[in-house]
């Protein structure tokens, strides 16, 4: 006959009680989640919701709580924290389609369009709105365009420029029934060409950091001007101006650690417009820098 010592009896009892205790704690966490939902419906302050949800996560972290806390944080402008909680929700439940959609929306609001597109792709087969967003991003090429007042992060750039990431996105697009594909070319509007500004450009910092990781690639810098000017010798002037701008970008990247041997520059003048007309909007679209990556 085996006689268990009191110590082992206690361990066995605790092991039997743990699932019950865990269930009770998670029930408490869910109650706090419902209270936070209720506050939103009654338009109470975000800080109260945040406290309830943080307490709920301490008790029983689950994807639903992470997701709603991310939603609350996003609404209060705390985007990086919101993204962190969306990712934690998706780590626990990769098929949590509400989290994928809300993450895509949050990236979209921040003009991080490639990350937005990639998030929507996870649910494009089951969510019509996500598929519509993807098609819009591809048709308008928003995913690869940035104005001077926006910064496209290294995380976005690597999705576009890294051949493995690029291929994964394009395969997922085909799997979703979308024939349009993304190309490893990024367009930058209203780049500031003062040398001091180029040296301190946060966007160029992100580009250089990306290119250092893609060390086996060739970098093609294309500069374009607008299509309408009444100056004499406008063709020659626009070609010289565009080449000067492409060279300025190349020199700035070299100063940030990119080998000049990897870089090719092209000044196209106004010979490759992407929009037609005489409005300032058309001029803005055509006056651009395009950075293309050719992976070896």
Question: How does this structure look, described?
Answer:
The chain has 296 residues and is an alpha/beta fold. 61% of the residues lie in helices and 9% in strands. The protein is built from 13 helices and 5 strands. The chain has a 5-stranded mixed beta sheet with strand order 1-2-5-3-4. The longest helix has 36 residues, at 6-41. The relative contact order is 0.08.
| Category from helices, strands and their pairing | alpha/beta
Helix fraction, binned, reads 55-70%
β-strand amount: 5-15%
How would you sum up the global shape? elongated
CATH superfamily of the domain at 184-296: OmpA-like domain
Element-level helix/strand string: HHHHHHHEHHEHHEHEHE
Could you describe the largest sheet, including whether it forms a barrel? Answer: 5 strands, mixed
Parts with pLDDT < 50 across at least 5 consecutive residues: 1-21
* CATH architecture label name of the domain at 184-296: 2-Layer Sandwich
CATH fold-level assignment of the domain at 184-296: 60s Ribosomal Protein L30, Chain: A
Distance N to C terminus: 73 Å
Q: Strand sequence of the main sheet, in spatial order?
A: 1-2-5-3-4
Mean pLDDT: 86
CATH classification, class level of the domain at 184-296: Alpha Beta
What is the fold's blueprint, element by element?
Elements: H1 6-41, H2 46-59, H3 63-75, H4 79-92, H5 97-109, H6 113-121, H7 128-140, E1 145-146, H8 154-161, H9 163-175, E2 185-189, H10 195-200, H11 202-213, E3 217-224, H12 234-255, E4 263-267, H13 280-286, E5 288-295
Parallel strand pairs: 1-2, 3-4
Antiparallel strand pairs: 2-5, 3-5
């Amino acid at each position: 006959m085996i006689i268990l010592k009191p110590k082992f009896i206690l361990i066995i009892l605790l092991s039997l009680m743990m699932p019950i205790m865990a269930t009770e704690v998670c029930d408490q966490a869910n109650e706090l989640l419902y209270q936070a939902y209720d506050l939103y419906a009654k338009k109470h302050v975000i800080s109260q919701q945040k406290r309830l949800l943080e307490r709920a996560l301490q008790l029983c972290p689950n994807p639903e709580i992470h997701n709603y806390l991310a939603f609350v944080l996003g609404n209060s402008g705390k985007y990086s924290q919101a993204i962190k909680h969306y990712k934690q929700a998706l780590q626990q439940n990769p098929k949590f389609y509400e989290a994928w959609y809300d993450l895509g929306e949050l990236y979209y609001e921040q003009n991080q369009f490639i990350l937005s597109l990639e998030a929507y792709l996870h649910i494009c087969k089951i969510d019509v709105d996500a598929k519509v967003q993807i098609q819009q991003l591809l048709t308008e090429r928003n995913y690869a365009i940035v104005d001077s007042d926006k910064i496209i992060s290294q995380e976005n750039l690597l999705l576009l420029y890294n051949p493995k990431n690029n291929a994964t996105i394009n395969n997922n697009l085909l799997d979703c029934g979308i024939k349009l594909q993304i190309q490893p070319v990024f367009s930058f509007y209203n780049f500031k060409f003062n040398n001091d500004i180029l040296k301190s450009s946060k966007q160029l910092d992100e580009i250089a950091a990306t290119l250092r990781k893609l060390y086996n690639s060739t970098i093609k810098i294309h500069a374009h001007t607008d299509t309408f000017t009444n100056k004499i010798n406008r063709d020659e002037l626009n070609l010289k101006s565009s080449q000067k701008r492409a060279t300025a970008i190349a020199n700035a990247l070299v100063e940030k650690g990119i080998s000049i041997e990897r870089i090719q520059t092209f000044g196209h003048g106004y010979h490759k417009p992407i929009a037609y007309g005489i409005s300032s909007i058309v001029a803005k679209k055509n006056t651009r820098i395009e950075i293309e990556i050719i992976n070896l």
